[in-house]
Amino acid sequence: MNWLLVVAGAAVGAPLRYLTDRAARARFGPGFPWGTFLVNVVGSFVLGLLTGVTSAQVHLLLGTGLCGALTTYSTFSYETLKLYEDGARGYAALNIGASLAAGLGAVWLGVETARLW
Amino acid sequence: MGLRAELPVVGVVAAGGALGASARYGAGLLWPTPEGAFPWTTFTVNVIGCALLGSLMVLVTERPTEWSTAPPHPLLRPFLGTGFCGGFTTFSTYSLETERLLSAGDPTRGLLYQGATLVTALAAVLAGVAGTRALRARAGRGRVGSA
Fold first, then answer.
1. What ipTM was predicted for this assembly?
2. Are the Cβ atoms of B13 and A18 closer than 8 angstroms?
3. What's the rounded Cα separation, in Å, for the pair B98 and B85?
4. Residues 6 or more apart from B143 whose CB is under 8 A from it?
5. Whole-angstrom distance, CA of residue B124 vs CA of residue B50
6. Which residues cross the membrane (chain A) (predicted)?
7. What is the pLDDT along chain B (147 residues), one digit of tens a residue?
8. Which of A11, A55, A71, B112 is the most exposed place for a label (fewest CB within 10 A)?
């Protein structure tokens, strides 16, 4: 049962990441990986919010499943390496700095928001 | 491309993502990280996922023109890359674990976790890419020589 909750959340989170990436590429072009950046920040915020929820089932469905699959470290690392290899070293550094800072800021904001309730 | 044409891709991304997330969930059950400790399980999951994705991307997107073999199935990359590796690795848990360590009054461990994951993940994706390129170059030479 627990495992099914993770599967259900991930089966929504991973396609959401894919579709967000596609939409971001269509909107902003391939120069900077806005799609991955966006899902990582949003997913971090939502996971922060979930610290205010006690239900273990909700954590499995929305935390481990949805947020875990919505966000990605592998694509973030690969895209950073590609930027560097393609000569866009400034963008590579920017992707690292912005993703780490915004991810941490977003999760903190989520935790603090959850604390207000 | 309309959403209808995207349906098979969306489907395999969902399936791969569910598999990857299940593997990550299983790793967390097998090796739970005590609160306040260095999150080794997420660290290892993220590093392995990065190495796998680096290797896969070389195999799928960098094909030498002299190869006569059929190109990889178009759903392979969305299933294994976007789906499995994307669902296996996580940025949100990484951010939350960093925040938890920082706010628990252990900023050194928090920053160490954040930095060590970044450096090791980038090294892993590079190792996956470079290692697969090197292996394939050797295999490719054998192929050309034998033709």
1. 0.97
2. yes
3. 21
4. B66, B67
5. 6
6. 32-53, 60-78, 90-111
7. 566 778 999 999 999 999 999 999 999 999 999 989 999 999 999 999 999 999 999 999 987 766 667 788 999 999 999 999 999 999 999 999 999 999 998 799 999 999 999 999 999 999 999 999 999 888 876 555 443
8. A55
Q: Is B108 annotated as contributing to ligand binding?
A: no
Q: Is A65 close to B118, i.e. CB distance below 8 A?
A: no
Task: State the total domains in chain B.
Answer: 1
Residues in B touching A15 (Cβ below 8 Å): 10, 13-14, 17
A68 is in an annotated binding site: yes
- Tell me which chain B residues have a C-beta less than 8 angstroms from the C-beta of A21: 82
Amino acid at A37: F
Q: How many domains does chain A have?
A: 1
- DSSP states of A69-86 as a string? HHS-SHHHHHHHHHHHHT
**Domain encompassing residue A16:** 2-116
Q: Residue A8's closest chain B neighbor by CA?
A: B18
pLDDT digits (tens, 9 = 90+) for A69-107: 999 999 999 999 999 999 999 999 999 999 999 999 999
**Taking Cα atoms as reference points, which of B89, B26, B27, B24 lies closest to residue B56?**
B89
Taking CA–CA distances from B103, the nearest residue in chain A reads A108
Q: How many CB atoms lie within 10 A of CB B102?
A: 18
Range of the domain at B15: 3-146
